Amino acid sequence: MITDVRPIVERLLRKLVVAGLPLMAACQDDGPVVCEPSSIRCGSPSLCLEPDGSTSQSLPLTMGRATFTFDDGRLADYYRACAASKDSCGPDCRGFCLAAAGFSPATSTYYFTCDLTCGAPNQVQISYESAVCGRRPTGLQRQRCDRQTAPRADSPLGRLLAEAAELEAASVPAFAQLAADLAAHGAPEGLVRAARGAMADEARHWRRTRDVARRKGGAPVRPTFARRRAAPSSLEALAADNVVEGCIRETFGALVAARQAAMAVDREVAALMTAIANDEMNHAALAWRIDAWAAQRLGDSFRAPRSAAAHVALRELGAAARPLDPDLRAAAGLPDPAEAAALLTATWDALWKPAFSDPSVRA
Asked: Do 234 and 339 share a domain, yes or no?
């Protein structure tokens, strides 16, 4: 069992920060930015085994250098959050350094250095060593089968993967609905494209999970729907649904997927979740970008409904855990109830509480 869940939560927060979200209170400060030279060094270089059995320190595999200006408001927000952070190795400082140097949000940063110099021009040099829940579309009806009449699998792992494949398949029309609704409400083209890209991701996840489920003895089924919407959702409904399905469920699902990728005993499951986990992190980041856009459009009138939707979703998520055989849990890499509770608590403290606290809403 992973006893410290913070690295998993930090990975998600880094993804969100690099996506451009002002998650920290420091980012709300609109005062002038004053650059201070600094050097951020995090992690430890890997040790290389020499032919004689001794060890030596490896060199960073990748280096980059970039110049920037604080006229770029996004970088200014990153830098404020980093300067105010007590953790120079936390997601704020890493997010600033990666964004300033133009690196992908997917960059691995176990061993990490970032040297910031000031003046004309400002310069960042960065080096590093690289060493499932989805959205539910409207009207989804799960294909629940009685084991005596229509068993999904004789293998518990096959049955679990068959259920996961069904949810992956259901996420395809969910993202199709989301993309259509975003377009109908005039959302930025980047959000619409990202939703369509997530739809393609989920189709790929469905195929891969289906195939692994079948090899494990499962019998995946496609989801059915009680109804399909002809007209777009209202902006308020879109925003509230995104809070529930994206900011809460997908965000937590991304954490669980990352945990499965790291801890699944079954090698096929570990490989499957390694391929899926990064996509799910991106989908979670998309949900938060949609939330920021919709909340700005809707204004103060949406604060209380937004917070209420989040709290209801969190209560449902906390009550949704089901007991699993320890061997099945280990094979799939799923957290046990204590670790799932720790993940929820850590994410609440680091992300959900700052984002969704509203004095008018009782937790």
From this structure: yes
- Whether residues 59 and 193 share a domain: the answer is no
Place of tokens 């979740």: 273
Contacts of 292 (CB under 8 A, 6+ apart): 21
- The CA distance from 331 to 319, in Å, is 23
Question: Which of 69, 102, 129 is the endpoint of a domain?
Answer: 129
What is the average pLDDT across 39-47?
A: 61
Does pTM surpass 0.70?
Answer: no
DSSP state of 266: S
Any idea which residue has 């970032």 for tokens?
114
Average pLDDT of 12-16?
Answer: 71
**Residues comprising the chain, all counted:** 363
pLDDT at position 227 is: 57
Residues 6 or more apart in contact with residue 28 via CB below 8 angstroms = 22
Higher-confidence residue of 217 and 74: namely 217
What are the DSSP calls for 39-99, one per residue? EEEES-PPEEEPTTS-EEEPPPSEEEEEEE-TTSHHHHHHHHHHHH-S-TTSHHHHHHHHH
140 strand-pairing partners: 225
**Nearest residue to 4 via CA among 260, 259, 281, 292:** 259
Q: Which of 40, 45, 155 lies closest to 98, judged by CA?
A: 40
Give the Cα separation of 126 and 95 in Å (integer): 12
Cα 234 to Cα 343: distance, rounded to the nearest angstrom: 33
Pair 81, 190 in one domain: no
Show which of 106, 129, 152 is a domain's final residue: 129
Residue 254 to residue 319: CA distance in whole angstroms: 18
Is residue 8 scored above 50 in pLDDT? yes
In angstroms, the first-to-last Cα distance of the chain is: 29
Tell me the pLDDT tens digit for each residue of 67-123. Answer: 666 666 667 777 777 777 767 777 777 777 777 766 654 555 555 667 776 665 566
**Contact at 8 Å (CB) between 219 and 152?**
yes
**Distance between CA atoms of residues 66 and 49, nearest Å:** 33
Q: What are phi and psi of 361, to 5 degrees?
A: -115, 130
SS3 38: strand
Please provide the average confidence, as pLDDT, over all residues in the chain: 75
Measure the CA–CA gap between 91 and 14, rounded to whole angstroms: 5
